[in-house]
Design brief:
The complex is a heterodimer. By secondary structure, chain A is an alpha/beta fold. Helix content of chain A is 26%, strand content 25%. Chain A is elongated, with a radius of gyration of 23 Å. Chain B is α/β, with parallel strands linked by helices. Chain B has a single domain, classed as Rossmann fold (3-Layer(aba) Sandwich), CATH 3.40.50. In chain B, 29% of the residues lie in helices and 30% in strands. The longest helix of chain B is centred in the N-terminal third of the chain and has 16 residues. Chain B is globular, with a radius of gyration of 21 Å. Classes of the chains: A alpha/beta, B alpha/beta. The interface between A and B is large, with 101 and 88 residues.
């Protein structure tokens, strides 16, 4: 009989973040598919009681928590210790956590401590003939596998956006505290804070409906033989402001910014989409001045609807990678598009 | 008194990202079609970590960089032809399977054993580097397990910046959600860093560095220890290419205004 542990951290306001609720739903489905295996909730961080209450009616057999000031921050040593303690207290055979930056940093180490194994970045968790199966991608979203494994405990991290968030009524959860005795070495790292661009300069919006990708073409000489170094960033930023799209870039354009040839100074490696960048999840994507080469397009794997503006009618996007390719000057189109979007 | 840092970079071979990849079934499990024929490169994020390591070593005299790499000997040799001209390092080679369908634990155990066998490695000066995820398995698991095996509990992933302060403390910037960085300080070494892109450009080829590296690379390849790497316990029910291929509509003679109108309508649907 399997025992499923849903493991996550608590937000400072005593809630659970959307990726956590998605993972809870996946864990509940898995437990139900495994002959109604017991599901145990493991929470890390302060305000765990409040968070447990928000999911009190989810059907979990037990609610466990590691609390205290040492476990508020996202830090390897303390998160690993907390996760290890919760897994042992739950006698878990399958441990599911959201693939957020916090848990992605630590769960492989936890699997090692538990003598188990891990599969990360699962995009689906199912049960077939009583066997839990996960789906995950390989070679940066180039091929997809369905797999299962014999080892236990089996740690699985589920990518955000791959399941519906759990949605149920709150209640009063009976929370059991799990004690973790931290060695002094676990506190050598101190989380100082977060560093982010100014609010009006933040171009990465994971929850945006639209991904807007700018390619290196924005930084090249245009039809008039000139580089439009002032107009290009203005057109892009105006569009991002009015559409609230998230900005992505190709490797070549972010490399140009990094090399000081900053036609698009706001473009950083964090914006990079593709083989060595992000694989964001947005419903729609609009690529401009970008050829659609494979190392970039693999980052579009989870963008459902794709449109492209490019002057090259033979660019890679036309080979089955986009829904519509407009053969046009992106500068001219974006000027008009900005007028229309700004009116809305 | 010893000075400088001991920087161990873990990184392996992956197929050149411009290649078309196709999965096939082999007796040992899933593999890539014509895998041995595919040109190989050092994993991109591991490359960044190697450049960061070399940069750090250059700024701190007495430092040394080791590149611990697992892969088929021929692939490692091919990779060295490129990477060995970029930055100085000493290669520690392991001869075994490298690919997306191998098990992170098996790779991590082999690499951590190899790191522990490096003569004269000083834990008090040790930084273990690597890419935060590979371009093959992309699990982000191997480095964490290596850290556990080496007893390093100060681990950071998705790192874009590392600053070593004169007082021995370190500051690390890790990528988190929403285009932000988490800023942490650490009291001292040893430390494990899974690098994202960092801030350094790819170094140009330097034949002198290549010549110096090759004096140690070829013997390291010759004495590469064979290791058995597989995916014990994992059953792949299927490995396929994504089936979706779009019927692309190419619109050639529409005015910018009409295109803008169509895109605006599409965005708002």
């Amino acid at each position: 009989m399997e025992t499923v542990l849903f493991l996550t951290s608590v937000e400072p306001d005593g809630t659970l973040a959307k990726p956590a609720l998605e993972t809870l739903n996946a864990a509940l489905s898995l437990a139900a598919g495994l002959d109604n295996a017991p599901l145990i909730v493991g929470l890390v961080g302060d305000a765990a009681q409040s968070a447990a209450n928000t999911i009190a009616t989810c059907g979990a057999a037990t609610f466990l928590a590691v609390t205290g000031g040492d476990f508020t921050s996202s830090r390897y040593a303390t998160d690993a210790a907390a996760a290890e303690a919760l897994a042992k207290a739950a006698h878990a055979t399958v441990i599911i956590a959201p693939a957020t930056s916090r848990w992605s940093r630590v769960m492989a180490g936890v699997a090692c401590r538990l003598g188990g194994r891990i599969d990360t970045h699962a995009t689906a968790i199912t049960v077939t003939s009583g066997v839990p199966l996960i789906t995950r991608w390989y070679y940066r979203q180039r091929m997809v596998a369905t797999q299962h494994r014999a080892q236990r405990p089996w740690v699985i991290t589920l990518d955000p956006g791959c399941a519906e968030p759990w949605n149920g009524s709150a209640g009063i959860a009976q929370l059991e505290s799990v004690t973790v005795n931290l060695p002094a070495t676990a506190k050598r790292t101190t989380v100082v804070g977060l560093q982010s661009p100014a609010a009006d300069a933040q171009t990465i919006r994971p929850d945006a409906k639209l991904l807007f990708v700018a390619g290196a073409g924005w930084t090249k000489k245009q039809a008039d033989g000139q580089i439009h170094a002032e107009e290009a960033p203005k057109l892009i930023l105006d569009f991002l402001k009015s559409s609230q799209a998230s900005l992505g870039g190709t490797k070549s354009v972010v490399d140009l910014s990094g090399e000081g040839e900053a036609v698009l100074p706001f473009m950083t490696h964090l914006n990079q989409v593709g083989q060595t960048g992000a694989t964001p999840r947005h419903a729609k994507g609009l690529a401009t001045c970008c050829h659609g080469e494979e190392p970039h397009v693999v980052g579009w794997r989870f963008v459902n609807e794709r449109r492209v503006i490019n002057t090259d009618p033979n660019c890679s996007w036309t080979r089955g990678k986009a829904d519509v390719v407009y053969v046009a000057d992106a500068f001219a189109v974006m000027r008009k598009l900005n007028e229309r979007v700004a009116k809305k | 008194m010893s000075t400088g840092y001991h920087i161990v970079v873990c990184g392996s071979v992956v197929p050149d990202p411009l290649q078309t990849l196709e999965p096939i079934a082999s007796p040992a499990g899933p593999a890539l079609k014509n895998e041995l024929m595919l040109p190989a490169i050092l994993d991109p994020w591991a490359s960044h970590s190697l450049y960061e390591a070399a940069h750090l070593a250059k700024q701190n005299p007495g430092s040394k960089v080791w590149l611990v790499s697992l892969g088929p000997k021929a692939k490692l040799q091919q990779m060295m032809m490129n990477i060995a001209q970029k930055v100085p390092f000493e290669l520690v080679a392991l001869d075994g399977l490298a690919g997306g369908f191998t098990e992170a634990f098996e790779v991590a155990f082999a690499l951590s054993d190899a790191i522990q066998a490096i003569p004269g490695l000083d834990r008090s000066r040790l930084l273990v580097f690597g890419g935060w995820e590979s371009a093959s398995r992309g699990a982000g698991a191997t480095l964490q397990i290596i850290g556990e095996r080496l007893g390093i509990s100060d681990q950071f992933q998705g790192v874009d910046q590392l600053t070593l302060n004169p007082d021995g403390t370190l500051q690390v910037l890790e990528r988190i959600e929403g285009g932000k960085h988490q800023v942490s300080t650490c009291a001292g070494l040893p430390i494990l860093i899974g690098w994202a892109t960092g801030n350094l450009r790819e170094p140009p080829n330097n034949p002198q560095i290549g010549m110096a590296n090759m004096r140690t690379v070829m013997p390291a390849l010759q004495r590469a220890k064979p290791v058995k790497i597989g995916a014990e316990g994992v059953t792949y029910a299927s490995v396929t290419l994504p089936k979706q291929r779009r019927e692309t509509k190419v619109v050639k003679s529409m005015s910018p205004d009409d295109i803008a109108k169509e895109i605006a309508t599409w965005i708002n649907q």
